[in-house]
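Journal club side-thread
Mid-discussion, someone asked how the predicted structure for our own chain would compare to the paper's figures. Pasting it here so we can look after the session.
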Amino acid sequence: MTEIVIPIKNLADAKQRLSDVLTPSQRSELVMGMLEDVLGRVSELDRGRVWVVSSDSHALDLARLFGAVPLQEIRSVGYNEAIITWLRALPDETNVAVIPGDIPLANEAELRALIHPVSKTTSHIRIAPAHDFEGTNGLFLSSRRLIRPAFGPGSFGQHFKLARSASIEPEVLNAPDMARDVDTPDDLRFLIDQKPGGATGALLKCLDFGQPDSEDVA
């Protein structure tokens, strides 16, 4: 069984690149809505434990509602550091997967393909790239010791190079729905156009993002 972690930044610091189009409270609500939808889909999978690592109490409370294991950070020390804190709590040979909390379009088939377990004697790495092949929207390691997580700008290429440096040819997943994370206003526009359901969809219906002000309408 694959152990899964969903790292969540402190809500006050989340989605800063959306600050031109969403208020701080809207950004927090968006993060929580997307997390709820991701947790809901992950909870339907055949897998090991699901962990949520965060310094934010609201994210940890939501994790508990879905039966996930909350791992409290004393303070927010960064995305990769949060993942490393989680990895240190696991046995060496456990299959592990990192799933971001901002991929509300990801479907169960894609998530299942990402976390599919392999033999403990097999060194295997799977990478689900973001739509622009810059970021990483899912990472599977057959052992926590294979590579050090390197999420952030250019992380897909970095994870690919780290895998090859460990003499492992990484499996790159074709997962177009998982590839759509939400970081920028363009990402948000794309998400709105998809008319998602769930908590994310309910929140988006309440936003006026992209709509003209009444005085601008002829």
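Post-session note: DSSP finds seven helices and seven strands in the chain.
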